[in-house]
Every structure is written in C-alpha cells, then in structure tokens.
Amino acid sequence: MISFLSKYDSVLKLHFENSTRFKGTSNLIQNDLILSVGEVMLKTIKKEISEASFVAFILDETTDISNTSQLSKIVRYVTKQGQIKERFLGFVDVSMQRTALALNEIVLSTIEDLDCGLKLVGQSYDGAAVMAGQLGGLQAKVKETYPSALFVHCMAHRLNLVMQQSLNKIR
C-alpha cells in the first residue's frame, strides 16, 4: 500500500529512493503507524462527540468467509456546526458470544469509552431477534440503561432485504 502511495506522492517516493535507515515498510512499523493513526482519529471523534448534542449507535453483525462473526460499530451525531457525521469505530469479533447480553456489554463499554451516555437518543440494528427483540433483545437492554435511546430498524438492512426478495422473482 505504501509503495502504491509513493507513486502519487513525490515526497514519499523520494524518501523510498534515498533513505538508508528508515523506509517504514516493516509490518511491525506499519502496524504501529496504523494504531497511531487510529488513536488520533478516535481522539478527534471523541472531541466532536463531546461537542455534539445527540448521539446514535448503529451496529451490524456479519459473518465473513472464514466464519468469523464481526460486529461493526458506527456512531452518528450532529456537530455543533449542524453537520451530520457518521463514523466507523471498528469491528468486534463476536463469534463466541452473539447473545443480547454480550452485545449489550460491547455497546455499554463503547458508550462509556466515548462518554456519550447522556446524549444517546438512538440505536439502529437489523431485525434479528437478538438485536431487535422487544423483551430480551439488545435494543431493550440498551433502553433499560438509556431510556432516551429509541430503536429504529436499520433502513439499509430493510432495503437490502427488499432488493433480495424482488430480484429472486426476476428470472
């Protein structure tokens, strides 16, 4: 990736051509750089959220080709300038624990980490019982702690289901 970027960045290209000590191509160095960039981005997101009036969480679980269940965490908020921001916070491996209780722990720890519990007004998940169930689903558990967090079924998921069903009827 960094070699590809050097084709479009003359300073980076010059560095690769002339550097004798540090090129930054080691996988350990690249992982450290990725972690550092991630920390800076998360700090910026936390600052924006601290200034926001309202926050909502969007979670979606999917299984990848290696049979690993991953939960994507997204936070949505309105900045003080009135801009709607939607930020991807990362993936969490939930292969071993896909219960509403386990997912609730992930949500609560994320809310605590972002320090936005009092601002939480929305939550959006797919229609699976573990997520959307009114009595024991994740949305009900989050609502017990944060009563203002209204649940809205993920419209993107609904659109995907409608498209799948309609395309199944076309020969």
UniProtKB/TrEMBL annotation:
Domain DUF4371: 17-137
Pfam families xref list: DUF4371 (PF14291)
Protein known as: Zinc finger MYM-type protein 1-like
Domain of life: Eukaryota
Gene: LOC115877969
